[in-house]
Amino acid sequence: MADVSILLIGASGALGKPLLDELIRQRHQFKRIAVLATPDRASKFSNSGVEVVVGSFFDAKSYQGFTHVISAVGNPLMVLQPAMVEVAVSAGVKHWYASEWNSDISQRQIQDLRYFRDKQAVRAYLRAKAAQEPNFQYTLMVTGIFTEWALDEFYGFDHQKLTAKLYGEPGRRIGVTSIPDIARYTIDSLRIPFEGPGRTLRVQGWTGKIEDLIRELEQVRGVKYEITWVDVSAAKELEEQARANEDDLSEMMYSIKPLLASGYGVADGVGKLDNGLFDFKPETPRETFTRVFNTQT
């Protein structure tokens, strides 16, 4: 892999930083590692130990000299990825890792969720671009829900009051993977060659029922949570209200709140897992919750 040079976009984000840490850990494998930063953010990476490219997402000069780009942009910039790819390919980039890392949005039951709309558009664009450019490839990493975020306040958990208000029903299947493991799966995947324009790699650290995941948290904390189950129609009403108010972010967020207990928050909804391609054992939910809650206390 001495000929692989990597540019990371979104290196200061919740997943971007672990990706950068993993790149640094494996730096001997690559010809060049750099992060792309705007002038006002460049100083954040001055002590990172990697090259900092100061420039714009939409300037071809930012991508020159790189074979691979890993995009870890967040929701507000997700829709801009096609424009980034267009410029990157013109500068010679051969491989794009899309900002994906979620449940398998190919599942018919969740493919139309507002939260995934921009990701679906990026997928469609990448397929079309790779069909036009014979030397261009892309990778989609499908990981299930981030373990650290699965039982977060966003999904209705109150870790002070020991309560949870969940949209959906008990007994539904869920798949989770810890953030450090997602970073490792992603960087390790750079060593796995493939033929054709694009690939989807499905990996998952743990699979079980939502109640089982909650029990893992209860075991770690030594407490019991009071769970209230709410019909998903309540979230749909809030989503529609946000749409009518042209509040895009709230519309996106309410659309995904029922995912946790939907049965479709998994990486293997339409295809088998690719864990066997990797040579490490992922963190268990109990290990993840122990790490997260020990850090907070």
| Mean residue pLDDT | 95
Q: How would you sum up the major sheet?
A: 7 strands, parallel
Residue runs with pLDDT of under 50 for 5 or more positions: none
Strand content: 15-25%
The tally of beta strands, per DSSP, is 13
Overall SS class: alpha/beta
Q: How far do the termini sit from each other?
A: 41 Å
Count of individual helical segments: 10
What would you report as the Rg, rounded to the nearest angstrom?
19 Å
Outline = globular
The strands making up the biggest β-sheet line up spatially as 3-2-1-4-5-6-11
Q: Report helical residue fraction.
A: 25-40%
SSE order in H/E notation? Answer: EHEEEHHEHEEHEEEHEEHEHHH
Protein name: NmrA-like domain-containing protein
Keywords: NADP, Oxidoreductase
Domain NmrA-like: 5-241
GO molecular function: oxidoreductase activity
Structure description:
It contains ten helices and 13 strands. The protein has helices spanning 16-25, 75-78, 81-90, 117-132, 147-150, 179-189, 210-221, 232-244, 248-256, 285-296; strands spanning 5-9, 32-37, 51-54, 68-71, 95-97, 137-142, 145-146, 157-158, 163-167, 173-177, 198-202, 206-209, 226-230. The strands form three sheets. It has a seven-stranded parallel β-sheet with strand order 3-2-1-4-5-6-11, with helices on both faces. A hairpin with a 4-residue loop joins strand 8 (157-158) and strand 9 (163-167). This is NmrA-like domain-containing protein. GO terms for molecular function: oxidoreductase activity. Keywords: NADP, Oxidoreductase. It comes from Cladophialophora immunda.
